[in-house]
Amino acid sequence: MKYKSFISIAATLILLLAATTFSIKVYAQKPPAKQFYELVIYHIKDKSQEQRVDQYLSDAFVPAVHRFGIKTVGVFKLAGIDTAADKKIYVLLTYKSLTDFHQLSNKLTTDKELALKGKDYVDAGFDQMPYLRKESILMESFSGMPMLRTPKFSNAKPERVYELRSYESATEKLYRNKLSMFNDGNEMAIFDRIGSQAVFYGEVLAGSHMPNLMYMTTYADMKSRDEHWKAFGSDPDWKKLSAMPEYQHNVSKSAIEFLVPTEYSDF
Q1: Which positions are tagged coiled coil (predicted)?
Q2: φ and ψ at 204, to 5 degrees?
Q3: Which residue of 39, 179, 202, 229 has the lowest C-beta tally within 10 Å?
Q4: Is 267 in contact with 150 (CB distance < 8 Å)?
Q5: Which class for 155: exposed (0-12), middle (13-18), buried (19 or more C-beta within 10 A)?
């Protein structure tokens, strides 16, 4: 009887070990969790509005978002002398889930410290608009780079160049083809290899220009940016990838904006 009990216990242990090993393998093979990004764009008309939005973001909004649990908030403006009638301030937020995306708005509505420190913005009258309009773009991270990366620079923030690109496609099928070019064709790997510091790559889930994707690469200055893009354009892997018949005509419109981080931006 003792021998039979030993055999039974041993068999049970073997089965448990096999099940545990299988579970570990399945867990290890799970794709990494993806993030969601929200790019908020304030359209402003003059210096007065710019100062009011700056004060709200730096003193009230960014600290409130930090309290919510989002530790890295990017805030940017157009590089160079902005003479455009429609000036912009960009805010990049990162979420672990769409639930967090929804809950942040509710949390900010009831945040007493935000209401106090951002009073001029929060309680602005209809004839004292702090901005012309506010735009929001919701994205999901690429499978090839599921997490936001904070760039590392030693120089002053005003010297840096953050390049924001948007690629639109003529159809949803061609859009998916361009996504495949980044993820499966290793277009992102080329950026990494030549030293372009990517912050994020995002599939646009909701926005005013669709279907499209957006991504941001960063450089110490404009000279560095030009050198990196020259290296990208002459890279053998890029030349091979861009010449592949299956990846032709998958971008119908591209937009490029050069941004600089504000002093109160987290990166």
Answers
A1: none
A2: -75, 120
A3: 229
A4: yes
A5: exposed
Contact 40, 89 (CB under 8 A): no
92-135: per-residue pLDDT in tens? 999 999 999 999 999 999 999 999 999 999 999 999 999 999 99
Helices then strands, counting H and E runs in the chain, come out as 10, 8
34-141 with 143-262: one CATH topology?
A: yes
| 175 vs 159: CA distance, rounded Å | 34
Condensed to tens digits (0 to 9), the pLDDT of residues 7-45 reads: 555 444 444 444 444 444 444 456 668 999 999 999 999
The domain defined by 143-262 folds into: Alpha-Beta Plaits (3.30.70)
Q: What is the rounded distance in angstroms from the CA atom of residue 70 to the CA atom of residue 94?
A: 7
Q: pTM for the complete prediction?
A: 0.86
Among 151, 51, 144, 44, which residue's Cα sits nearest to residue 92?
151
pLDDT band at 178 (very low <50, low <70, confident <90, very high): very high
Domain boundaries, given as residue ranges, for the chain: 34-141, 143-262
Angle at which helices 222-233 and 187-194 cross, to 10°? 130
